[in-house]
Design a protein that fits this description.
The chain is α/β, with parallel strands linked by helices. The chain has 9 helices and 17 strands. It has 2 domains: 3-292, Zn peptidases (Aminopeptidase); 294-378, Urease, subunit C, domain 1. 27% of the residues lie in helices and 27% in strands. Belongs to the peptidase M14 family.
């Protein structure tokens, strides 16, 4: 599919009611109602705090694809893109009917509604649902497994968001979108169904390279049977981990949302039009592995410390304040950061950098702004 066509599809079908990083049941419930005439929308279970977990079924094709988002409540970019995708399937003029004739999709937009509301990775029992695939100790885990067992998917899309710390390889290139074909055994054997997932990822990567060259990564495939992706892969269902990452100055993840949408449509088009067997999986191994080489801000060449000129590394702490997400700058490192990159760099040129009390910065400090050359510099994003 042509990138320009995909971009126009996104612009015409973007769900304008969803914006930013804080997405909860309250944001999506009114949107789900408009799909009742086109798709099957149902409550498939309840969270620890008895919030509804919703499922959406659409399409009539023989190829079944299960997609779930916000297993981690604070990873919402893929959820926004799901609603953009759903909008696309409600409009005949998009020309995507052929996907729903070839495929049946089952979508869980928010698996962890308690975590989404609290803006936490874990659920209300403080359990990481992505480490509960074997114990199935949580109601949300049981809901997902029940749908997996009853729907019997041919493909799984495990939809997540990643922190701003990742680079695509050992380069000054942030990993804006990342993927993984999870392992299904301790030896990380490249099995036939892993190859199927790898082939689909390769197709997505080829499309994304046209818009974000050298900024797609893959995760280490170390095996953990407690993870949902590894478990479903071990059941011989090709499973793809999607990770929505950081594009420069896009802390609301709105451009990344578009890239995830492009990834959805590109992959679904490929599945609809092909009998994917893993034959063309080799290009997967050309995608660089993610490294943790980024901070949000680095202030370079700062004086006033006993070990000479240093760099000050700052990472934003995502904090929910009155249902509004704030990015609080926290000093993570004070040292020479020669092999670490930043989404924003400030050169102190040998001057001191002070906090609002005219004191040197220390690790753990939360500083919305710093003072450099008698000027106030705001660190957190707009």
């Amino acid at each position: 599919m042509q990138i320009d066509y995909l971009k126009s599809l996104f612009e015409n079908n973007k769900e304008k009611a969803l914006f930013g990083r804080y997405i909860t049941n309250n944001h999506i419930e009114s949107l789900l109602k408009k799909f009742n005439n086109n798709f099957i929308v149902e409550t498939i279970g309840y969270s620890v705090l008895k919030k509804s977990i919703y499922g959406i079924k659409l399409g009539t094709g023989r190829k079944r694809i299960l997609m779930w988002s916000q297993m981690h409540g604070n990873e919402s970019t893929t959820t926004k893109a799901l609603f953009d995708l759903l909008n696309s399937f409600t409009h005949k003029e998009t020309g995507l009917d052929y996907i729903l004739k070839a495929c049946t999709l089952y979508i869980i937009p928010i698996l962890n509604p308690d975590g989404a509301e609290a803006y936490t990775r874990v659920n209300a029992n403080e359990v990481d649902l992505n480490r509960d695939a074997q114990n199935l100790s949580q109601p949300e885990s049981l809901v997902l497994r029940s749908i997996f067992d009853s729907f019997q998917p041919h493909y799984c899309y495990n939809l997540h968001g990643q922190r701003t710390i990742f680079s695509a390889g050992k380069n000054n290139k942030s990993a804006i979108v990342s993927f993984l074909s999870p392992a299904q055994d301790q030896a990380c054997t490249v099995t036939p169904n892993r190859k199927v997932a790898m082939e689909i990822i390769s197709v997505i990567n080829r499309a994304l390279q046209k818009v974000i060259p050298s900024q797609v990564g893959v995760y280490d495939d170390a095996f953990n049977i407690n993870c949902v992706g590894d478990t479903f892969q071990s059941k011989n269902v090709p499973t793809i981990l999607f990770e929505a990452g950081h594009f420069y100055d896009d802390y609301h993840r709105e451009y990344t949302r578009e890239l995830i949408y492009l990834s959805y449509v590109t992959s679904l088009d490929y599945i609809a039009n092909n009998e994917v067997d893993g034959t063309h999986s080799e290009a997967y191994f050309d995608i660089p592995e993610n490294e943790k080489l980024f901070l949000d801000v680095i202030i370079r060449n700062v004086s006033g410390y006993s070990n000479g000129l240093v760099d000050i590394g700052v990472q934003f702490k995502e904090t929910l304040v009155n249902a509004h997400l704030e990015f609080i700058p926290v000093v993570e490192k004070i040292e020479k950061l020669n092999n670490i990159y930043a989404h924003r760099e400030i050169n102190a040129e040998g001057e001191k950098v002070l906090d609002e009390n005219q004191k040197h910065l220390s690790i753990g400090n939360e500083n919305v702004f710093v003072i450099l050359k008698n000027k106030k510099i705001v660190l957190n994003p707009k």
